[in-house]
Amino acid sequence: MSNTFLLPDLGEGLTEADIVRWLVAEGDTVAVDQPMVEVETAKALVEVPSPYAGTVLTLHGAEGETMDVGSPLITIGEAGESGEGSAPVAGTETLAVPPSTGAAAAEADRPGALSYREEEMAGVQPKPDKARGGDGDVAGSDDEASGAVLIGYGTSGHKATSRSRPSKRGRGAARLTPDPTAEAGAPRVTSPIVRKLAREKGVDVAALTGTGPHGLITRADVLAAAEGSAPQAVPTPAPAAEAAAQPGAVDGRTGLAVVARTPISGVRKVIADQLSRSRREVPEVTAWLDVDVTALLELRAALKAKDPENAPSLLGLIARFTLAGLRRYPVMNARIEAGADGKDEIVEVDGVHLGLAVQTDRGLMVPSVEHAEKLSVDELTAAINDTVSRARAGRAAPAELTRGTFTLNNYGPLGTDGATPIINVPEVGMLGIGRIIDRPWVVDGEIVVRKVTEMTVTFDHRVTDGATASAFLTFVADCLHDPTAALARI
């Protein structure tokens, strides 16, 4: 008996994903929850674990190929089974994956989702769920099935997975949980966090004996193994190569030889679509202002001298003053959307999810710090560092990339003074910070050298006018110019 696993909706209602790298090959033996493929959605790089134990019969897509959600991804048979004739036929079970609702609250109500979140946090094995079929029988399979739940497997109010197969009269109820004897020798790892920790530490989980319930491998087991041996190098996926052009291909417009053709897909396609939508829909305006930030740099230097390990970053200080400006001018933190009657409405929210423009190997991303207005400068610094690091590593969750209410764009490290950025719709505004350089500046009638940066604010003119946007920009600039005096106003 073989099982064909379909590409799941990995969250947020995405309809396709690119295969980045297969972690298994046809003929390999896989265990339940073993990572089998890396796929790139429009929002994240995700490892998909195997829901079955057995032999890989067929890989239904090539690396670099774009696959639709619900299409066959991999076929796994019983241990030792041949790959010949592995197409889905009678005797083959297909793990069907209904579309995700994309709603976090609804997903939390699904039986498996809460267990999965608890398992991720605690590193314990989730309890198996039971889903009833239409005839009152337990829906499932006699084959080994994963105890973990991947976000996007099933929808709220329905069974977590549904299986389509030829009906067989008189067949007994199938199990949703694997037979312990069928997985003899397979490492019992259900936590993605434990698997990730093992990869980072170079620990082979197959060589470990778990100390958790029923032999479950825990964080402590991985850490103990890592301390007793030198970590091994963990392979990293190679960047996607440009597609080679056909020999002798000539560009019809210029007459030059074509050396490469790279499909616009994945993150790059989403970026292109998002920016094009912003340009089409938003009448954006950019205002800019030069600011003397010498005092801000001196303040940060003083804080660092007192506590070098815990001093707030410059971006953390700028973010804190930006949040103060958004509290004073809340319309800059609003958005525009169509109401129930189809008419546009300006929506203001209670709180700020501060977006951070981040350049990554996969393209420009804007992860956000949730409820940034509640954080101190020190907490903001830590949250910004963590958010940016995870985005660059491809580990930002889809929700982090879509929940922002206002964006802070620090393009100074790129070496530019200013820019006219495109708004991250449906947000209303974006604050930009250029490089800080020495410039001649008039202070008390004297020309002196000061640390100066250029600030810009880009805003949606449908929602706010130049007076409000300029007042917001001026307020933040005044805070950066004289941070000590600003403390009395924030």
Automatic annotation (TrEMBL):
Listed InterPro entries: 2-oxoacid_DH_actylTfrase, 2-oxoacid_DH_E2_comp, Biotin_lipoyl, CAT-like_dom_sf, E3-bd_dom_sf, PSBD, Single_hybrid_motif
The protein's required cofactors: (R)-lipoate
CC annotations in GO: cytoplasm
Record domain Lipoyl-binding: where: 2-77
Pfam families for this protein: 2-oxoacid_dh, Biotin_lipoyl, E3_binding
Record-annotated membrane-spanning stretches: none
Protein name in UniProt: Dihydrolipoamide acetyltransferase component of pyruvate dehydrogenase complex
Lineage: Bacteria, Bacillati, Actinomycetota, Actinomycetes, Micrococcales
